[in-house]
Request: fold
Amino acid sequence: MSASVKVVVTGAAGQIAYSLIPRLVNGRTFGDKKVDLVLVEIPQVVDKLKGLIMELEDSYFPNMGNITYTDNFDEAASDGDWFLLVGSIPRGIVFNGKKIEERSDLLSINGGIFVDQGQAIGKHGKDDAKILVVGNPANTNAFIGKNAANKDSQLWMAMTMLDSNRAKSIISKKTNKNISDIKNMIIWGNHSPTMYPDAENTIISGELGNSVINDMNWIESNFIPTVQQRGKAVIDARGASSATSAAKAAIDTIIACESPTESGECFSAAVASDGSYNVPEGLICGFPLITQKDGTVDIKRDIVLSDFGKTKIKISIDELLAEKEAVKHLMK
Ligand SMILES: NC(=O)c1ccc[n+]([C@@H]2O[C@H](COP(=O)([O-])OP(=O)(O)OC[C@H]3O[C@@H](n4cnc5c(N)ncnc54)[C@H](O)[C@@H]3O)[C@@H](O)[C@H]2O)c1
Reply:
């Protein structure tokens, strides 16, 4: 084995984590690196992680390194290379006697968690740590965490890969192509029902989606709302949120960041805007991304947006600005 990587996972006793954690040590996600895991949970459930650790040991993953668990995030963050921030309080549960239904309630409860975790990552994580926020509201949680970490050399991302994978799947059915023939499926904006999945700029068997699909009515009235509402459709059908597909998307994001992106291609995640595409600087917004040969992750800047696309993105940016306003008391 060439090297090791330390991965910190929060929400480790949750549904997504149960699918995610075994894939971190299966020898594919991080190649032949040894993977040290630190699993983090809240005090009420942290002891359940003993069972997961037994299962991981029993599975015999040759790439698995040290594995520990804790409810102390400061301790967990020490020298972390990757932070998968899955843990958050989900919509629908009763918290302090109140049923959490509104996004604004989610923002304030989870926002507090991400201030503490951000500070710990800034202080104790590696200088080049990569942080993937999965727990919702993912973009604004990442915004809060990045601000609290206050370390520009670390890369904060919010996950939009699941939306991108869902969109690819729908387009592959519509066009009768293999899912592997669909590339560059960009999710712009917020990981929320305002997101803009960009069918016009996706690449289908080497051609621009716009010309292959050639059906704006389908894009607007079928494709976009289906992608935007897919999370809710899964919850309605399963009685629980997307877990296996979310775990797969987190793995896809790691893999996309761990190796250089093929020329002309890109992948989807939300990162802090540098003003590209007129997105206000600092907002954590879904963009097309590329991983450079030196391992840095940049926004791909040569996508041409139609007026239709720009209008859709603006709706999502406005939502992100409103979320930013709602959490301004958590900013330093
Ligand atoms: N970005 C995406 O595409 C996407 C997709 C699906 C789900 N999600 C979100 O991912 C999150 C997790 O989903 P799940 O199905 O695994 O939920 P879950 O309820 O099964 O698990 C969440 C776990 O997080 C733990 N947790 C809560 N606060 C924590 C903290 N401060 N530190 C450590 N652990 C903490 C809880 O104890 C729980 O075990 C939810 O917010 C969900 O909305 C995001």
